[in-house]
Amino acid sequence: MSTTIRMIANRLSISVATVSKALADSHEISKETKLLVLNAAKEMGYVPNPYASSLRKGRSKTIAVVLPEIADSFFAEAINGIEEVALSKGYHVLIYLSHESLLREQAILQDFKSGRVDGILLSVSEETNDTAHISALIENRIPIVLFDRVCEELNTTCVVADDFESSYTATKYLISKSCKRIAFAGNSINLSINRNRVNGYISALEKNNPGGYQNIIISDKDKDISYQIFADLLRGPNRPDGIILSVEKLSAVIYKVCADMMIDIPNQLKVLTFTNFNMAQFLSPSLTTVNQPAFQIGKTAATALLRKLSFTTTLTESETIVLPSQIIYRDSTS
């Protein structure tokens, strides 16, 4: 049986309140009594319960992280950044998955209205085209920070990568590698992250080749359907000689299609993908990537949330923090 504050109080013949204040280093308790209590607690193997203490103060010392998935390497790195900040400040981290479902995301956030967590870090699902469930939390003064996949119209802090700029740079790079027909493949048009990347792609094409080839493909959750979409694209009469993939999992699909159709990467099709996938360097050919600062995005988002928890007057302050990405040039675009 674990040692309790009451057991320490009984042993020392003092009140439970005195023991509690002594363990909390209260100024109301003398140094002698504090030392007496601390020595007894150590001898009796007392272990404080920070969770119970936080509940007494009206805080759970827990933050929720709501993600669309964890198979993506970006989110794995972001979680590491979030936990580094949260754990250093004594917060527990609970991870919830929406599985790219708006209904599931709504249900998860509805559950948080009960006060189960102190604050929320959210990256929205690809189906999220209605933000009423997020606005309701903000209106109820529940601290929330959006990261990576954000809703720019909401009055809260958003932490993102420079998606427009990095997509513009990636497209311009493929143009410099003599690509005349560059396609762009992404997922949901609901996501601002995808829209920003599409806009960067279009802007680079219009500035360098106005009125020229543009082809924007929307992939599917089902890999077999995405495979067919790419196969149809690459067997067409005006097939692209370069492609930018906005979604990590599409890189495996495009490599498979090219292998099956005997399309040579990079001589017949140059491939560039937004991903933090460490194994990209070991693919054949090695994959050129736009690496987002996932770990730093996680750290920055967690820091912003904890700041909101400390200063409740800034809960609805609108703020967007943009962090730079980096293109890693490899053989798939050589």
Topology:
Layout: H1 5-12, H2 16-23, H3 31-43, H4 50-56, E1 62-67, H5 73-88, E2 92-97, H6 102-111, E3 119-122, H7 132-139, E4 144-147, E5 157-161, H8 163-176, E6 182-186, H9 192-208, E7 215-218, H10 223-234, E8 242-245, H11 250-261, E9 270-274, E10 288-291, H12 294-310, E11 319-323, E12 326-328
Parallel strand pairs: 1-2, 1-3, 3-4, 4-5, 5-11, 6-7, 6-8, 8-9, 9-10
Antiparallel strand pairs: 10-12
Helix pairs in contact: 1-2, 1-3, 5-12, 8-9, 10-11
InterPro entries: HTH_LacI, LacI/GalR-like_sensor, Lambda_DNA-bd_dom_sf, Peripla_BP_I
Protein name: LacI family transcriptional regulator
Pfam families: LacI, Peripla_BP_3
Polypeptide structure, described:
The protein is of the alpha/beta class and 334 residues long. It folds into 3 domains: 5-48, no CATH class; 57-161 and 295-325, Response regulator (Rossmann fold, 3-Layer(aba) Sandwich), CATH 3.40.50; 163-293 and 328-333, 3-Layer(aba) Sandwich (Rossmann fold). It contains 12 helices and 12 strands. It has helices at residues 5-12, 16-23, 31-43, 50-56, 73-88, 102-111, 132-139, 163-176, 192-208, 223-234, 250-261, 294-310, and strands at residues 62-67, 92-97, 119-122, 144-147, 157-161, 182-186, 215-218, 242-245, 270-274, 288-291, 319-323, 326-328. The strands form 2 sheets. The chain has a 6-stranded parallel sheet, sandwiched between helices. Helix 5 (73-88) links the parallel strand 1 and strand 2. Helix 5 (73-88) packs parallel to helix 12 (294-310) and helix 10 packs across helix 11. It is elongated. The termini are far apart.
